[in-house]
Design brief:
The chain contains one helix and eight strands, in the order E-E-E-E-E-E-E-E-H. It is an alpha+beta fold. Strands 1, 2, 3, 4, 5, 6, 7 and 8 form an eight-stranded mixed beta sheet that branches. Strand 6 and strand 7 form a beta hairpin. The longest helix has 45 residues.
């Protein structure tokens, strides 16, 4: 099989002779062998591992993304970020931790932006509402005369 891993900025992995691939989606880990049915899934932040025809194991950490199998011979992974390395321990500890941290920072930034947006909309609504409300008409006999109540 042929494996390609890309990010929006670079081609991270281009490998031929892939005998087996293991990856993770929200349902858990799964494996792909030659001849696998066409398949599309959203990946979690995880490490995808594969064996080449010589039996050597390789790894790539992915920050989410999509995995597609076509014709049982082509595997394509498109990820937001990916780092390839044969050091599985480093990928599982340092790189995945950094990916999770970045996801959390982005989630918090989106939440803050949404709060600002909603506050601006509320302020605009208050302003528009105050422009539409007419001044209250004065009722005879209810106004103060010379600062004294009637």
């Amino acid at each position: 099989m042929r494996l390609t891993v890309t990010t929006p900025l670079a081609m991270i992995v281009e490998a031929g002779g892939v005998a087996h691939l293991r990856a993770e989606d929200e349902t858990g880990a799964f494996g792909i062998l030659p001849g696998h049915a066409d398949f599309l899934t959203a990946l979690e932040i995880s490490v995808a591992s594969w064996r080449d025809a010589k039996g050597a194991e390789h790894h790539v950490a992915v920050r989410g993304g999509m995995l597609q199998v076509e014709g049982g011979q082509t595997i394509t992974i498109a990820a937001r970020e990916a780092i390839a390395s044969d050091d599985l321990h480093r990928l599982e500890t340092e790189v995945l931790a950094a990916f999770h941290r970045r996801n959390e920072e982005e989630r918090m930034a989106r939440t803050d932006a949404e709060r600002l947006y909603l506050a601006a909309i509320r302020q605009i609504c208050r302003f528009l509402k105050s422009e539409r409300e007419p001044a209250l008409p004065s009722v005879p006999g209810t106004a103060f005369r010379d600062g004294v109540e009637p």
